[in-house]
């Protein structure tokens, strides 16, 4: 099944990001428009069975929501918030992440449901075709047997 037919307009305009690292170590930053699964492909032209290369990945999720970047919040808190306010901010950020994960799971579930419906439609169609072929084969065989017996004057 072609998955491009079921993509949203936003997903269809997303392009892969290609970055060439000239140094032996480096950092790549990429901001994603959507939550979801990410495929990371690393290619090294000098790597091979004789000269293997090792790569390390560190993925950091940052919260760049404008409502959470108000004065006195964020990563550089300067002590003006009480312990209770800090806990409330932590809980709010956690709830935003939980809701984003729930939305992502909902989208995956709807795609799986669509795939299941398509498979169900296919399982209804093919048995009907198989029964038609079986009936036609049975009718043809029966007519051949009747003609054989009639030609030999057995019946």
Describe the structure concisely.
The protein is mainly alpha-helical and 155 residues long.
Notes on the structure:
This protein has one domain. Helix content is 48%, strand content 0%. It contains 2 helices and no strands. It has helices at residues 9-13, 83-151. The longest helix is centred in the C-terminal third of the chain and has 69 residues, at 83-151.
Percent helix range? 40-55%
What is the helix/strand order? HH
- Give me the secondary-structure category: mainly alpha
Cα distance spanning the termini: 54 Å
Number of domains: 1
Taken from the alpha-carbon principal axes, the silhouette is elongated
Question: How many H/I helices?
Answer: 2
Keywords:
single chain, 155 residues, mainly alpha, elongated
How do the helices and strands line up, and which of them pair or pack?
Layout lengths: L8 H5 L69 H69 L4
């Amino acid at each position: 099944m072609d998955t491009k037919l079921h993509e949203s307009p936003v997903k269809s305009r997303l392009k892969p990001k290609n970055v060439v690292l000239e140094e032996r170590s480096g950092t790549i930053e990429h901001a994603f428009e959507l939550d979801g699964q990410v495929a990371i492909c690393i290619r090294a032209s000098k790597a091979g069975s004789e000269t293997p290369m090792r790569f390390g990945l560190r993925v950091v999720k940052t919260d760049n929501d404008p409502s959470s970047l108000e004065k006195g919040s964020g990563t550089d808190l300067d002590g003006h918030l009480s312990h209770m306010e800090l806990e409330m901010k932590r809980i709010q950020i956690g709830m935003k992440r939980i809701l984003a994960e729930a939305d992502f799971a909902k989208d995956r579930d709807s795609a799986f449901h669509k795939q299941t419906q398509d498979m169900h439609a296919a399982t209804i169609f093919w048995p009907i075709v198989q029964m038609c072929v079986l009936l036609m084969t049975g009718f043809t065989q029966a007519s051949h047997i009747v003609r054989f017996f009639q030609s030999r004057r057995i019946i």
